[in-house]
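Chapter review: from sequence to fold.
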Amino acid sequence: MIPLRPKSSIICLFLAISLVMTGINAKKTIQVKDVVFTIAQSDDRKVTEKLSHPNKLPTTLPPIHNTDTIKLSFTPSLNDGSAIKLKQAVLSFRSTDDVARIATQWASKLDGTGTGTGSQSWGVTIDMGSTATMESFLGHSGRYSVTLYIATLDAALAYDLGAVSVLFAGPAVVPKPSIPESFTPGPEIHHVFRAPDAMASVWLSRVFTVLVLAPWSFLVGAWGIGGANVKNFFEPSSSFGYGGVFFSALGAWVFLFYQYWLRLNLFQLLYYGGLLGVITIVVGRWALVHRAQLRLNKAY
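The token string follows.
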């Protein structure tokens, strides 16, 4: 194999890019011509409008009644002039009324006319008086925008034909729900609540009160048996202040547990108890130190 020189590689790359760009530019598109919109009325009169893409239907077009038949014929082809063999076209009607919001699409089988290798004319016919048409439009009269959709595997076209007026003889039909709705009173719901717990008896509350006060009674009795002397507690000295704060801290503990019994939770008890515990330890140590110093000074 002969290796390519740098100049030859650049030329090959340029040719490859040119081929890709040529393929992109050669993208196929659909064209339509000989577009004819016909309204066949019930009295055998016909209203015919010939269009050229992308022109639209005139606003002076008479309204379409439910006794009429409309037909749209057209000749599609690709931009390179080759013919298209279609199997189906979709003619879409969308209501311009923002309140109604009715839209229907007709995937109609095409009627092909013409032979040979050239372009072939196709037509879409819709009987506005058929049951399927009435159900599709829900009997709603008004202005509808019409769009023709045709497509192949390589290209597609959406041709906006403009707006037409559709008139139905009867009132608009209210669509029936796919699942029948039934709103009827249901059975009455009776809620059954758990019976409230019975209050504890009075004697149990009194026993609990005695158990709470018993330790204090035991403490006072133990002080009496041990010969507790409180006469020096009221002597005017620095120990009196620290002793008063220490006993106040002990009373605060009793009040804290009383509040815990009434309204505080465990986390609040631990929080306030931690703060009060630090204060009790500090002032208790100061009170004991000053009390010991007072005893040493008086030698008793």
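Two observations follow directly from the output. The CA atoms of residues 56 and 162 lie 5 Å apart. The helical segments are 6-25, 131-137, 202-226, 238-262, 266-298.
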